[in-house]
Amino acid sequence: MFEKLVIFDYSGTLSPDAVRFAEDDNLSEELDRSGLAGLGITAPEIFWREIVNPDWEEGSTTSIGYREIMSKRIKEVFSPAVSDEEIRLCASRFVDSYLGHSLVDSRWRPILQKLNRESSVITVIATDHYAEATGYIVKFLKEMGAETVSLGDIPGAIVSPEFVVANSADTGVHKVDPGFWEMVRTVLKLGAIQSILIIDDFGFNEEAGDSYADHQKVDNRKRKTIDLLKSVFNVPVCAIPFVLTGKDEKTCGDLISQTSLKIEQWLK
Fold first, then answer.
1. pTM
2. Where are the alpha helices (DSSP H) in the chain?
């Protein structure tokens, strides 16, 4: 029976590369490479304003998927003189590249493997994301040596595995909604949990063009998330903000090492 719950955010925390993908220079290249630029999405600001932000709520809380919602928006907003098949192909190239580049940083491997060995700990990767991300995250974590399943795929015969991916697209609500955590608690049978640790960037590391990263919302998201965890699980909650102060590899590596040490200290 699990006594401790460790929660990781994904984009910007376990996967800093997911944020780097969305930086203007790289995003511009990806729009060109995928063919989306030729359909009218010629600049990052257009991508955020016309594609991501308007349908983020639907895209991140339903099974529709990033490819489909992007294709739909392109047809509605830009009406390019190409076939639906060509639109879907360009959207698929972009989404596959984005998710394929959103790897778990290899420097998390030691602490993830340690958590995997802790029989009293269950680790949940909680993310507000599109439906396609679930399979990618499960795959990446398995490559790290952590046996992982998605929250929706847990067989009834299994009490709960050590690593679970809880994606808002699968739960139907975002992480700031009590229903998200109620589902995690119920499905994983976490009534005996005694303490919680959450490692999250709370939006700090997200690309500035994304409305999800509005800095005025960050503190509010952090407070609401912690309050929700306390109210749903009725146990102490410790939060480790994963806030990158620079984009270079050394800064990121140092922060991962420091954060990993704090997690080890919390486990003692």
1. 0.91
2. 16-21, 24-34, 44-46, 56-59, 66-77, 84-101, 109-117, 133-143, 168-171, 178-187, 215-233, 249-267
